[in-house]
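Sequence only, no structure available. Ideas?
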Amino acid sequence: MNPKPIVYILSAAVTATAVFFSIDNKKKLEGEIATFVERRTTKDAVERNEDKTQKTLTETEAVLESAQKLNADLIAEMENMKSRETSMNRSKEEAQVKIDESDARLSQLAEIKAKIDKALEGVNIAWPQIPSEIKRLQEVRKKKGDDLDLLNEFVAKLTKDVADKRASNARESERLTKIRTKIARNAKVGAITSVNSTWGFVIVNLGTNNSNVTPQSKLLITRNGRLLGRLTPNSVEASQTVCDLNARDLNPGVRIQPGDQVTLADSSSGQ
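Reply:
I predicted one. Tokens follow.
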């Protein structure tokens, strides 16, 4: 058997097989290449989209931050405007109060001017002369006031002197009244109401309530204006006095009897 045909056949088979596998591998390779290219293209697109998205996010964050800052600035400006508005309202209210006060003063001034005009009716004084006239009147009033102060001081001193004099007169009057009372009581005329010759005493109707009789007093006995003698108080009571009856104190031949008058010997004895 001729081996060449077999070799040719085997060669052809190998070649065919190699071609087959070559074509198949080529297709697979092309498919893988196509897949790789597609994946790479997709990846590039995704990366580009991610870069774009990141850029968009960055730009969005910057815009958001700027917006937030602008919002904070707007809020601060609004608060500032509210504060200025409150301050302006307060200033407006204060200004209105001042305006009202000014209006009230103007009204008062108008009333005062009307009163002055009425008071100056028939008086030859022009408005420009009023200040100087007022000053002149104030000076006159001050001088009169000074004179009035001096007069008041004089009146006060005089009043005090009069009060002191009245007080002194009152004290003197009281002293004189006491003296008169004392004199009157010293000069009071009493009488012997009882005579006890056995025990040697008499009772006189003069006591501490109606006279100045004291145990040291000296009493004079009279009858019809004639001195009969003297008595020495032994016991002074409220309405009567018991006196010792000594013959040596009586005029010779005198007998004391009820009804004889009795007076103090002197006004100084009743101290």
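The first strand starts at residue 190 and ends at 196.
Hope that gets you unstuck.
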